[in-house]
C-alpha cells in the first residue's frame, strides 16, 4: 500500500531544480513564466527547489560551456534517486548557434542520461509544461521499478 | 585527643580546609623534579592533590545531614577560645546551611577539576607548582566561605587572589596571559584593599571581628563610618564576583588561564564574591529589607546579565566567550538574591549551583578542544564532532544547560528566577521588577544564540585540513566532564529534591539571621521568620521526559519500520564521487566554514552603535579598569550615604 | 592628634588610587598599589592607638584593673597586612619583568592585546 | 486496580498517539499547510496546488533516497529531525483544547515558550551537522529570527499571565489549564481591552516563528539554497516538512487557546473541530494573507520589525494589563 502511495505521490509532487549552464536567459525567463498566474504550474504540484538535494527533476538550460560542465555534472550527481533530467531549449541538446565553439560542450547527453528534451529557442510555456508532465511520468515509472 | 573525638563532625569544617593547605605544603615540600611518566608530569603530587580535594569533599559531604537536613549550625572556636566578657576573642568558624551550600559547590568543582588536571596539564612545565597553587586556591575559597571571622575572610581573599593571579599567568607563553594576570592583580588588589579598609573600619566601631557578633551589633547603630565601611566591603566583594563593572578582568583571566583553572575562577571565585555579598547585605548589615538595597542588587544583576551576554556575542575566542557568559549568569544570581524574597534567594542559590556545574563543564570542554587542537579561536576551528564525539555531546549538555533549554538544570533555576522576579513585581506592585523578568528571558535566548555560534563554529560545520589527526581526549578528562554532565542532568530533572535538600535550607538560613547569631553564643532578639517557597508556575520535567520518550519511541518504531536509516553514504575508498560532496552552487572542492564572530550579523547590525561603543569601552588598558573600580567605589559610597 | 593620622591614611589610599588610574607606567602602577597598602596600614595602626597607652606586653602579675595599653589586635592585623603587601609587590614586580620581556615596553597603553 | 491503571495508561497513550498527539498533529498540520498554499495561490489569482499537496510532498520525500554528505556528522544529521518532531508533538499536548486539559497541568506558558526552542534547536543542530555553509548562514538567520520573536512573545505571555492573575485575584497566573478554565467561565480573553494589542502582537509573531513569508530569511531558497535544509534529502527532509506543519498548528492553536478560548461545547470531538476551524482562520489571516501581500525582508529588517513594532504593541498590552484594564 505504502509503495503505491509513494509512487502516486511522486507523480504529484515533482520539485524542480534549475541549472543554467551558460544560457542566454531566454529559457530561464520562460521557466519562470510557467510559474506565473497565467500558467501556474504549481497546480500540478511543481515547485522550484533551492538545492539539488531536494529536487526530483533537474532542468538544464544553456549550451553547457566548458567552464560549467563539471559543475553541472556535480550538481546533477547530488540529486537523490529517483531523478529525471530535462534539457530545455535547443542549446543543451545541440549547441544551437554556439555549436562548434571551442568553449561549448553540448550536447549534454554525451555526459549524462537525459530523460526529456524540450526543444525550442526558447520553448513556449505550453511546451515546457508538456515536457515537465512527461518527466513526471518517467519519474513515476522509475519509482515503480524500484 | 582520642579517635572518637577526632571523628566528631564538628571538626570537619576545619579538616576540609586544612587538608587542602596541608596538601599544598606536602606537594611543595616534595620538590619540583618532574616525574618520568609523560602522561602525568607531576607524578604522585597530582595524586596528593586529588586525594586532598577528595577528602575535603568527603568531609563537607558528611555535613549535609546535620547542617542541611537537621538545621544545625556548627560553631567552632579555634583552640577552644570562645567568648570572654561578651566579646569574641578567638578565631571562629561558623558553618550554617549557606556556608555549607557554597562549600559543597566549591569542593565539587575543585575535585572534578583536579581529576581533569592530571591528564590536561601534560604539555606544561612546572606542573608540581601548579598543584601547590591549585590547593592554595581551593583552600582559600573554602576557608572564605566557612570562616566566621571577617578578618579571616580578608586573609582568605588575599590567598585566593594571589593563587588565582599566579595560575592565570601560569602558561606564560599563552597570548596575553601575563597581561591578564597583571590587570587582575591590580584591580584585585584594589578590591582587597577595599575589603581590608572596610574590615578595619568596622573594627574601629565595634571592636570585634566575629561575623555573628557584628551582625548582632551593627543593625540599628549605623553611622556614616559604618556606611562607608559597607560601601568598601561591597565593592571589595564585587571585584571577587566580577560583576559589572569588573567583568573585563574575568574575561581576560579566564581566557588566559588553563581550562582547569578557568573552572575554578568562574565556578568558585565568583561564588566566593556572591557569598560575601550575601553575608554582607543579609547578615552583617541586614539592609535587604530596604527597597533601595534591593534595587541596587537587582539593577547591577540585570546590567551584568545583559551587558555580558552582548559582550559574549561579540567574542571570537571560545574561552573569552565563556568568561563573559560566566558573569552574565552571575548577574542572574545577583538579581535573584537581591529580590529579598525566600523564593528569590532559593532560585539564586540554585542558579549559582547550576552555574558551577554547567560552566565547569563548558570550560572543561573548551580545555579539551585546546588540548587537542592547540587553539580556541572560533575562526580557526570547525567540524570537531567527527573526531571528538564524546566531547561534543558533553559540550552540548553544558550548552543546553546554560541556555536554559528544558529539561536541563539551567532551565529549572532560571524558571524559578523568572517566577521570583515576576512575583516580586506583583507583590511590590513595581513594574521595574517585571523588566528584570523580561531582561532575564531575553538574555537566556541570547545565551542560546551564542552557544549555537560555538557549536556551529567549533564542533559542527566543516573541518579544516589541519585537524585530520585530532583524537578524542583521554579518559580522565572525559570522566571529569561526564561527572559534571550527569550532575547537570540530575539537578535539572529533580528540581524539587535539589531545592528541598540544598537551596531551601540555605535560603532559610539567610532569612533566619537570629539563629546565626545565637548559634555563636550571642543574644539576639531577631524573630525566626516564617519562610515559604510557593511557586506559581508548573513544570514537571519527569512527566515531560516520559511523554517525550514515548513520543520518541513511537517515532523510532515508525522510522525503523520505514527504514529511515537506509541512507546513501560515501564508502571508505571512494573519495571522488561528487554525489557526497556538499552543494556549493556547483563549485567543486571548496572549503568554507561559517563561523567566528559575525554569525549573528542580523542582530549585531541593528545594535552596531552599541557594540562599537562597548568595544571601545573595553579598551584593555589597566588604567581604565582601575578607573572603573574607583568610580564604582565612589558611586557606592555616595549611594550608601544617601539611602542607608 | 590621631585624626591627622586618619586624614593621612585616607590621603595615602586616594593617592594610591590616583597613581594607579593616571600613571601609564607599569612600575608606577605597582608603586601606587604599595602606597595604597601603606595607607591602609597606617589606618589600622591608628585605630588601635589609645592616647597614653603602653605596649600590650605584660606578665600575669602586672595586670590590674588600671592597666592601660593600646589595642593589640590591629597591630597583629597590620603585621599580616604588611606581609601580604610585600607579597603583592613582589608578585607584581615579577609580572612587570615578564611583561617587559615579552612586550618590550612598560607603557600600559601598549599592553592591551586583550580587549573588546 | 491494576486494570484501572492499565486503562488509564492506555487512555494517555491514546492521547499521545492519536488525539492531540501524533495523528491529529500530522493530519491537521498538513491540512493547514495545504490550505495555506491554496489560499496564497487564490490570492495571487492562481489555481494553486490541491489541498492535499503537503501529503503528496511528504510521501514522495519518504520514498526518495537519503544522501548523507561526506562532510556531515551522520548521527546528529539523522537524529535531529526526529527529536525536533517529537518535542513539537509534546508541546501540542500541553496546549489545552477548550475543556481538554489532560496534560496542561504539567507545563505552563513560560515553559511552553522554552519548549518551543527545542524543535528550533534540533533543526539548527541538524543544519550545523550537515557542514554546508548555506546551512551555516541559514541557522544564523534562524537564530536571529528566534531572538527577534522572543521579546514580543515574552511580553505577550507576561501580559496574559497578569491579566488572568488579576481576574483570579492571585496576582499572576502562568498555568495553561487555569487560563483555559478562566476563559471557559468568563469568555474569551480577547474581549479585554489590554489583550487586543497582545493578540495582534502574537499574531504578528506567528509567521516569524513558523518561518513563513516575509520572515523566511532562514530558508530563502533563492539566495541561500533552502538555508538550513540545504543538504537534507529524502525522509529526514520529510520529517522537517512535517515539523514545520506541526509548528504552524502549534502556534495557531496556542493563539486560539490564549485569546479565543471558551467557545467550546464540552464534547472533545466538537471542540477539536471548532479549534481547528479557528486555527484555519488564524492561518488564513496571519500566514496566507501576509505571505500573499509581502515580499521577503532582510534579516536585520526582520529583527528591527519585531523589536520595535511588535514589541511596542506587546508592551502597550503589558502596561494596560498592569493597570488592570
What does this structure look like?
- The complex is a heterotetramer of chains A (146), B (644), C (116) and D (325).
- In chain A, 38% of the residues lie in helices and 14% in strands.
- Chain A is built from five helices and five strands; from the N terminus they run H-E-H-E-E-H-E-H-E-H.
- In chain A, helix 1 packs antiparallel against helix 5.
- Chain A has a single domain (13-145), classed as Rossmann fold.
- The radius of gyration of chain A is 15 Å and the shape is globular.
- In chain A, strand 3 (57-61), helix 3 (66-77) and strand 4 (84-88) form a beta-alpha-beta unit.
- Chain A is α/β, with parallel strands linked by helices.
- A five-stranded parallel sheet of chain A has the order 2-1-3-4-5, with helices on both faces.
- In chain B, 68% of the residues lie in helices and 2% in strands.
- Chain B has helices at residues 3-6, 12-29, 44-61, 64-69, 97-120, 127-146, 150-168, 177-206, 211-217, 224-241, 247-256, 259-284, 291-313, 318-337, 342-373, 389-402, 409-428, 431-459, 475-493, 495-511, 513-519, 541-561, 601-606, 608-617, 622-643, and strands spanning 74-77, 83-84, 87-88, 92-95.
- In chain B, helix 5 (97-120) crosses helix 20 and helix 7 runs antiparallel to helix 8 (177-206).
- Chain B is globular and about 90 Å long.
- Chain C has helices at 2-22, 26-48, 72-103.
- In chain C, helix 1 (2-22) runs antiparallel to helix 2 (26-48) and helix 2 (26-48) runs antiparallel to helix 3 (72-103).
- The longest helix of chain C has 32 residues, at 72-103.
- The radius of gyration of chain C is 20 Å and the shape is elongated.
- The relative contact order of chain C is 0.15.
- Chain A binds chain B through residues 19, 51-53, 68, 70-75, 77-78, 80, and chain B through 568, 577-579, 581, 583, 585-588.
Amino acid at each position: 500500500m505504502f509503495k503505491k502511495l509513494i509512487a502516486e505521490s511522486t507523480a504529484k509532487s515533482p520539485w524542480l531544480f534549475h541549472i543554467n549552464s551558460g544560457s542566454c536567459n531566454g529559457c530561464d525567463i520562460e521557466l519562470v513564466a510557467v510559474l506565473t498566474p497565467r500558467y501556474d504550474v504549481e497546480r500540478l504540484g511543481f515547485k522550484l527547489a533551492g538545492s539539488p538535494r531536494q529536487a526530483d527533476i533537474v532542468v538544464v538550460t544553456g549550451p553547457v560551456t566548458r567552464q560549467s560542465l563539471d559543475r553541472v555534472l556535480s550538481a546533477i550527481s547530488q540529486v537523490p534517486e529517483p531523478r529525471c533530467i530535462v534539457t530545455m531549449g535547443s542549446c543543451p541538446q545541440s549547441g544551437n548557434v554556439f555549436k562548434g565553439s571551442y568553449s561549448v560542450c553540448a550536447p549534454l547527453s554525451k555526459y549524462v542520461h537525459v530523460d526529456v528534451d524540450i526543444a525550442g529557442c526558447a520553448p513556449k510555456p505550453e511546451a515546457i509544461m508538456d515536457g515537465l508532465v512527461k518527466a513526471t511520468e518517467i519519474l513515476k515509472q522509475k519509482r515503480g521499478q524500484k | 585527643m582520642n579517635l572518637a573525638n577526632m571523628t566528631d563532625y564538628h571538626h570537619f569544617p576545619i579538616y576540609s580546609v586544612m587538608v587542602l593547605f596541608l596538601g599544598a605544603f606536602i606537594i611543595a615540600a616534595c620538590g619540583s623534579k618532574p616525574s618520568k611518566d609523560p602522561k602525568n608530569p607531576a607524578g604522585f603530587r597530582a595524586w596528593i592533590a586529588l586525594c586532598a580535594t577528595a577528602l575535603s569533599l568527603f568531609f563537607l559531604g558528611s555535613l549535609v545531614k546535620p547542617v542541611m537536613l537537621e538545621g544545625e549550625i556548627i560553631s567552632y572556636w579555634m583552640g577552644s577560645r570562645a567568648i570572654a566578657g561578651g566579646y569574641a576573642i578567638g578565631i571562629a568558624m561558623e558553618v550554617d546551611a549557606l556556608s555549607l551550600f557554597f562549600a559543597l559547590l566549591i569542593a565539587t568543582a575543585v575535585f572534578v577539576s583536579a581529576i581533569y588536571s592530571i591528564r590536561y596539564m601534560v604539555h606544561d612545565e612546572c606542573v608540581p607548582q601548579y598543584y601547590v597553587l591549585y590547593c592554595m586556591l581551593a583552600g582559600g575559597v573554602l576557608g572564605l566561605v566557612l570562616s566566621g571571622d571577617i578578618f579571616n575572610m580578608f586573609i582568605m581573599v588575599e590567598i585566593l587572589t594571589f593563587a588565582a593571579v599566579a595560575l592565570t599567568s601560569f602558561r606564560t607563553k599563552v597570548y596575553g596571559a601575563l597581561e591578564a594576570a597583571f590587570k587582575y592583580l591590580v584591580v584585585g588588589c584594589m578590591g582587597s584593599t577595599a575589603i581590608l579598609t572596610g574590615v578595619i573600619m568596622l573594627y574601629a566601631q565595634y571592636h570585634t571581628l566575629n561575623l555573628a557578633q557584628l551582625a548582632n551589633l551593627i543593625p540599628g547603630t549605623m553611622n556614616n563610618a559604618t556606611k562607608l565601611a559597607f560601601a568598601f566591603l561591597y565593592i571589595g566583594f564585587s571585584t571577587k564576583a566580577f560583576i559589572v563593572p569588573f567583568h573585563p578582568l574575568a574575561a581576560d583571566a579566564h581566557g588566559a588561564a588553563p581550562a582547569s583553572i578557568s573552572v575554578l575562577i568562574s565556578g568558585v571565585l565568583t561564588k566566593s564574591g556572591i557569598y560575601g555579598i550575601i553575608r554582607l547585605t543579609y547578615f552583617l548589615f541586614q539592609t535587604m529589607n530596604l527597597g533601595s538595597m534591593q534595587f541596587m542588587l537587582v539593577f547591577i544583576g540585570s546590567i551584568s546579565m545583559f551587558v555580558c551576554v552582548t559582550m559574549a556575542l561579540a567574542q571570537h575566542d571560545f574561552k573569552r566567550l565563556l568568561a563573559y557568559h560566566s558573569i552574565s549568569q552571575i548577574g542572574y544570581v545577583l538579581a535573584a538574591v537581591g529580590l529579598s524574597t525566600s523564593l528569590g534567594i532559593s532560585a539564586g542559590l540554585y542558579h549559582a549551583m547550576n552555574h558551577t556545574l554547567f560552566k565547569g563543564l563548558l570550560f572543561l570542554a573548551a580545555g579539551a578542544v585546546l588540548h587537542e587542537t592547540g587553539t580556541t579561536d572560533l575562526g580557526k576551528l570547525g567540524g570537531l564532532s567527527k573526531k571528538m564525539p564524546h566531547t561534543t555531546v558533553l559540550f552540548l549538555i553544558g550548552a543546553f544547560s546554560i541556555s536554559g533549554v528544558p529539561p536541563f538544570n539551567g532551565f529549572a533555576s532560571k524558571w524559578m528566577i523568572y517566577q521570583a522576579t515576576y512575583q516580586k513585581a506583583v507583590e511590590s506592585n513595581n513594574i521595574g521588577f517585571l523588566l528584570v523578568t523580561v531582561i532575564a528571558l531575553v538574555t537566556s535566548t541570547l545565551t542560546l544564540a551564542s552557544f549555537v555560534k560555538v557549536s556551529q563554529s567549533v564542533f559542527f560545520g566543516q573541518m579544516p585540513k589541519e585537524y585530520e589527526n585530532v583524537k578524542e581526549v583521554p579518559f580522565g578528562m572525559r570522566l571529569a566532564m561526564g561527572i559534571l554532565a550527569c550532575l547537570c542532568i540530575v539537578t535539572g530533572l529533580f528540581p524539587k529534591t535539589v531545592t528541598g535538600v540544598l537551596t531551601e535550607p540555605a535560603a532559610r538560613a539567610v532569612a533566619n539571621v537570629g539563629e546565626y547569631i545565637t548559634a555563636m553564643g550571642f543574644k539576639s532578639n531577631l524573630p525566626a521568620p516564617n519562610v515559604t517557597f510557593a511557586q506559581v508556575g508548573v513544570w514537571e520535567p519527569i512527566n515531560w521526559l516520559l511523554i517525550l520518550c514515548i513520543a520518541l519511541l513511537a517515532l523510532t518504531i515508525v522510522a525503523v519500520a520505514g527504514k529511515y536509516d537506509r541512507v546513501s553514504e560515501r564508502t571508505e575508498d571512494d573519495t571522488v564521487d561528487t554525489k557526497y560532496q556538499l552543494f556549493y552552487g556547483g563549485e567543486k572542492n571548496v572549503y568554507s566554514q561559517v563561523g567566528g564572530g559575525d554569525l549573528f550579523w542580523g542582530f549585531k547590525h541593528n545594535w552596531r552603535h552599541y557594540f562599537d561603543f562597548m568595544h571601545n569601552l573595553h579598551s584593555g588598558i589597566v588604567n581604565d579598569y582601575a578607573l572603573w573600580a574607583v568610580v564604582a567605589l565612589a558611586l557606592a559610597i555616595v549611594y550608601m550615604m544617601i539611602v542607608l | 592628634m590621631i585624626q591627622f593620622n586618619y586624614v593621612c591614611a585616607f590621603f595615602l589610599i586616594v593617592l594610591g588610587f590616583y597613581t594607579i588610574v593616571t600613571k601609564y607606567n607599569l612600575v608606577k602602577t605597582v608603586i601606587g598599589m604599595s602606597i595604597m597598602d601603606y595607607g591602609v596600614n597606617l589606618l589600622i595602626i591608628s585605630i588601635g592607638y589609645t592616647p597614653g597607652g603602653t605596649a600590650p606586653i605584660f606578665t600575669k602579675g602586672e595586670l590590674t584593673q588600671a592597666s592601660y595599653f593600646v589595642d593589640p589586635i590591629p597591630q597583629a592585623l597590620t603585621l599580616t597586612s604588611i606581609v601580604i603587601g610585600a607579597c603583592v609587590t613582589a608578585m607584581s614586580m615579577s609580572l612587570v619583568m615578564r611583561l617587559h620581556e615579552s612586550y618590550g615596553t612598560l607603557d600600559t597603553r601598549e599592553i592591551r592585546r586583550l580587549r573588546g | 486496580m491494576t486494570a484501572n491503571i492499565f486503562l488509564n495508561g492506555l487512555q494517555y497513550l491514546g492521547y499521545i498517539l492519536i488525539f492531540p498527539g501524533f495523528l491529529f498533529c500530522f493530519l491537521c498540520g498538513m491540512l493547514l499547510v495545504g490550505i495555506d498554499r491554496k489560499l496564497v495561490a487564490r490570492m495571487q489569482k492562481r489555481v494553486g496546488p490541491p489541498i492535499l499537496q503537503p501529503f503528496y510532498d511528504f510521501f514522495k520525500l519518504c520514498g526518495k533516497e537519503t544522501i548523507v554528505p561526506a562532510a556531515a556528522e551522520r548521527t546528529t544529521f539523522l537524529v535531529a529531525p526526529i527529536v525536533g518532531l517529537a518535542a513539537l508533538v509534546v508541546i501540542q499536548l500541553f496546549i489545552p483544547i477548550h475543556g481538554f486539559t489532560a496534560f496542561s497541568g504539567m507545563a505552563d506558558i513560560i515553559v511552553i515558550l522554552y519548549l518551543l526552542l527545542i524543535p528550533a534547536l534540533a533543526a539548527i543542530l541538524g543544519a550545523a551537522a550537515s557542514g554546508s555553509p548555506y546551512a551555516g548562514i541559514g541557522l544564523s538567520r534562524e537564530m536571529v529570527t528566534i531572538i527577534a520573536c522572543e521579546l514580543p512573545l515574552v511580553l505577550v505571555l507576561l501580559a496574559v499571565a497578569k491579566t488572568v492573575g488579576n481576574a483570579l485575584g492571585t496576582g499572576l497566573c502562568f498555568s495553561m489549564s487555569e487560563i483555559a478554565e478562566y476563559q471557559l467561565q468568563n469568555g474569551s480573553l480577547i474581549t479585554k481591552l489590554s489583550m487586543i494589542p497582545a493578540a495582534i502582537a502574537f499574531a504578528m509573531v506567528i509567521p516569524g516563528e513558523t518561518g513563513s513569508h516575509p520572515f523566511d530569511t532562514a530558508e530563502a531558497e533563492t539566495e541561500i539554497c533552502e538555508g538550513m535544509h540545504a543538504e537534507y534529502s529524502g525522509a529526514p527532509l520529510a520529517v522537517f516538512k512535517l515539523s514545520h506543519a506541526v509548528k504552524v498548528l502549534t502556534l495557531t492553536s496556542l493563539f486560539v487557546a490564549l485569546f479565543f478560548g471558551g467557545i467550546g461545547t464540552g464534547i472533545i470531538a466538537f471542540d477539536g473541530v471548532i479549534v481547528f476551524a479557528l486555527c484555519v482562520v488564524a492561518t488564513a489571516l496571519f500566514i496566507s494573507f501576509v505571505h500573499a501581500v509581502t515580499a521577503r525582508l532582510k534579516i536585520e529588517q526582520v529583527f528591527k520589525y519585531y523589536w520595535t513594532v511588535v514589541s511596542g504593541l506587546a508592551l502597550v498590552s503589558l502596561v494596560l494589563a498592569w493597570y488592570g484594564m
